[in-house]
Amino acid sequence: MQFIPVLVLMVLFFVMMFGIGFILNMLMKTTWFPSYLFVIVILPVVVYSLWDHSSTLMSHLGSFQLVDYMTGVAGLAGAIISGWAIQKLRLGGYRMF
């Protein structure tokens, strides 16, 4: 496992989820919707779509590499920080957000 591609992938997922979460928060006037969406919809869809159904769920989750988990955590962190940023902007008096 090379370090630079993993770092680039983590930054990419973080920025992508932050941007999508920030835009969703602005348009829908929600705060934590992208975080819930990531945990409830996106992660299970990814796990289910890669599952070959000939193995158990635990052996399937064990087949993921550290890189897969790191990118998932980076995406979740981006979604959470987008909600935090929107919340701070609203508390700061910005009505647009």
UniProtKB/TrEMBL annotation:
Protein species of origin: Paenibacillus barcinonensis
InterPro entries in alphabetical order: YuiB
Name the UniProt record assigns to this protein: YuiB family protein
Keyword terms, alphabetized: Membrane, Transmembrane, Transmembrane helix
A Pfam family this chain is assigned to: YuiB
Source lineage: Bacteria, Bacillati, Bacillota, Bacilli, Bacillales
Membrane spanning residue stretches: 6-24, 31-51, 66-86
